[in-house]
Amino acid sequence: MKKIAVLTSGGDAPGMNAAVRAVARGALAKGWQVMGVRNGYAGLLADHFDPLQARNVGGIIQSGGTVLGSARCPEFAEPAGRKKALQNLGAHGVDALVVIGGNGSQSGSASLAREGFTVVGVPSTIDNDLYGNDVSIGCDTAINITLEAIDRLRTTASSHQRAFAVETMGRNCGYIAIMAGIAGGAEVIALPEHEITPAQVAERLRAAYQRGKTHALAVIAEGAKCGVHELMEYYGAHRKSIGFDLRVTRLGHVVRGGIPSAADRVLATRLGAAAVDTLAVGKRGVLAGIIKGDVVVTPLEEITGRTRPADASLLELARVMAI
Ligand code: F6P
């Protein structure tokens, strides 16, 4: 191995920079050259490569987002797009690529691997929906941002005897919602992995009112079937029966911004370095993840098309704690 490239792809996630730093410094320490690719797969196609030295990745471990830039790149899903990307990698003399990103990005890695290029994936998505890995880079920070919002909303909810429905991101995975909901003492949590109707959510809010609570909080995952719109519609038609007044806060992309937590920085550093070590021992076409505390590599082929659901059994724990 002489020269590797690294890119960040898909939705940005706090800790991506720490992962870029770890890949670059881990590889430089082995005497390899490192190139940073701008804006994910789009930069591979547009031939946007820059050499990375140790100082180029200094002072970034604490910053959110990605200094390399990211993009969603539909052209890369086409064979012609990948051909162009492989030509550009070849023209720069790159032997291997490290892809830091989530599900869609690792499907792209799998395609490159299938076409014979040496690639290793690093799991990074706030959604934490990647198979072959327990916790992906960015989701701890996203949980903490959601939690901070919940704590703040509780203060005003309690002053006004209101209920709040807080929608957090996560695409089709309820991991952020369940973790932040439990940590924030939510009265009800709606996940994509678990059926719950607006009437059932409203009933739980009403029950909290009847138990004498001064406020109630519903945490709604972005991908839940009972979304905040459905809930507000139901509330419009049954306002009186809930007891509390209901307000909605959609956190949206706020959840993705911000300073990476210590846990995300350490995780990203471990995984970035693990990706380099994986290449050093000649493994390719794998995702370097952490399972039960240890670095484990899983073939990208096994990951493609699979997702890791949130643990809906934790809903019962949240329900008991909300009495
Ligand atoms: O995958 C990360 C994520 O933030 C999801 O939680 C969300 O559904 C999606 O990306 C938003 O995508 P975009 O930034 O392209 O609007």
Shape: elongated
Spatial strand sequence of the major β-sheet:
3-2-1-4-5-10-11
- Number-wise, the strands total 11
- Low-pLDDT residue intervals, each spanning 5 or more residues: none
Distance between the termini: 58 Å
Number of helical segments with 4 or more residues: 11
**Which structural class is indicated by helix and strand composition?**
alpha/beta
Give the biggest beta sheet: 7 strands, mixed
SSE order: EHEHEHEHEHEHEHEHEHEEHH
Alpha carbon gyration radius: 22 Å
Instruction: Give the % helix.
Output: 40-55%
Which percent band covers the strand fraction?
A: 15-25%
Q: What's the pLDDT, averaged over the residues?
A: 96
List keywords for this structure.
323 residues; alpha/beta; seven-stranded mixed β-sheet; four-stranded parallel β-sheet; 11 helices; 11 strands; 19% strand; elongated; binds 6-O-phosphono-beta-D-fructofuranose
Walk me through the structure:
This protein has 323 residues and is an alpha/beta fold. Helices cover 42% and strands 19% of the residues. The chain has a seven-stranded mixed β-sheet with strand order 3-2-1-4-5-10-11, sandwiched between helices. A four-stranded parallel β-sheet has the order 7-8-6-9, sandwiched between helices. Strand 7 (188-190), helix 7 and strand 8 (216-221) form a beta-alpha-beta unit. Helix 1 packs parallel to helix 9 (262-280), helix 5 (139-160) packs across helix 6 and helix 7 crosses helix 8 (228-242). The longest helix has 22 residues, at 139-160. The radius of gyration is 22 Å and the shape is elongated. The mean pLDDT is 96. 6-O-phosphono-beta-D-fructofuranose (F6P) is lined by residues 11, 72, 102, 125-127, 169-171, 222, 256.
